[in-house]
Design goal:
Blueprint: H1 2-27, H2 38-59, E1 75-85, E2 88-97, H3 115-126, H4 131-142, H5 148-156, H6 158-166, E3 173-188, E4 190-202, E5 207-215, H7 222-234, E6 239-245, H8 251-258, E7 263-266, H9 268-276, H10 284-295, H11 300-314, H12 319-332, H13 340-347, H14 353-366, H15 372-386, E8 393-396, H16 400-410
Parallel strand pairs: 3-6, 6-7
Antiparallel strand pairs: 1-2, 3-4, 4-5, 5-8
Helix pairs in contact: 3-15, 4-5, 7-8, 9-12, 10-11, 13-16, 14-15
Length: about 425
Amino acid sequence: MSDTIEPVADRIDQQQLAQQLVDAARAEGIELVGPDGLLTGLTKTVLETALEAEMSEHLGYERHDPSGRDGGNSRNGTRTKTVLTEIGPVQIEVPRDRDASFDPMIVRKRQRRLDGIDEIVLSLTARGLTTGEIAAHFEEVYGAKVSRDTISRITDKVLEEMAEWANRPLDAIYPVLFIDAIHVKVRDGQVTNRPFYVVIGVTVDGHRDILGIWAGEGGEGAKYWLQVLTEVRNRGVADVCIVVCDGLKGLPESITTVWPQALVQACVLHLIRNSFRYASRKYWEQMARDLRPVYTAPTEQAAAARFEEFADTWGEQYPAIIGLWRSAWSEFVPFLDYDVEIRRVICSTNAIESINARYRRAVKARGHFPTEQAALKCLYLVTRSLDPTGKGRARWAMRWKPALNAFAITFAGRIIPTNGS
């Protein structure tokens, strides 16, 4: 009981102390934030107190302690230093020693920013702000000048982390993989639209797991996809039950080469969305209603009958839509053999759409990128912002237990839930 009471009492004391400080500041007309604000003063006090504690530990005696006299190394005054913090610039006095061997950790030598500032820069970059916009943000909000070169160096620090993330070990089996593309403008001599492929897996535990991001040139074939999927397999993915993709050239053949038991499923959402490209917007809602009986049909025979009805209604006006579905039919129909819970996972817009929306916002805000690596860095920072641990995990799958049971029955012997499932 006492272990619980003490932390609560500590919190109450901290709240009371904070309230007293705020009340005193207001009574004296002191602002909470700003160069002479309460938070700036507190930050200065905390940093200087921590630095003094580090110096005492380094020298082996407390400040003003007579035991430290004539004992070799000793304090040698202070030097003024300004550090950029999350509340703005703070001027602090850093203690010095006579032989210059003091190497503080709380504010390191030559350090001009606290670590929280780097995270702010990375977060703003993930939201699509350019280096110039981030520099303007710091000047406007914090009253601090941060150069574009400094911002670039901060974001470049994640390149090593990005490489580790892109090569991290993966799970042995994924019930479902989604492969999707987002198009990014990259200047390579001239500005061109480049596809960047995102592979998202649904784990046996029901997590959305972003396995990686790969840059393409457009028009990729079997050789490219075999290289990408072999890389995924070499990172530990021994088996995949279903791969949902959008008819990319050479991809289905590469999938079954790497994972012979995998079923290739045309993305139903993409089929529907691609159908709308050929139709006037005013017909989209009606067309979506007419397509629903096709992909919710209980059997392939029933789906074929519903599709013929759809073709009779729309075929004369939009023959290209009918051709689109007929060409994708062989990769669409496996979907009809699945349990309704498996269909729900495959059709879930949450799997990729929410993530892609974040990617698109960041990309759109930037306009175009000078290099492929710059684009990959931005997309990685968006991914990183979804999960600060750097594992690239996005969110829990919805209603996973019924789907897990359906997968375990449909793919008997291949789906083995972990203790945490």
